[in-house]
Amino acid sequence: MNKINFVVFLIAGLQVAGIEMWQNDYDQRLYYTCSGRDSISMITSKL
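User: That's the sequence. What structure does it adopt?
Assistant: Structure tokens below.
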């Protein structure tokens, strides 16, 4: 599997898995603390 196909497969898999967890529904500061060995892997804005 070439690198581009792998990235597309990975992104599609994360979206299907329901990784989109919005922390708020409006524009304001977001305060979030990861627990344990977790990390924030992406921050996006929902229009």
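Helices lie at 3-16.
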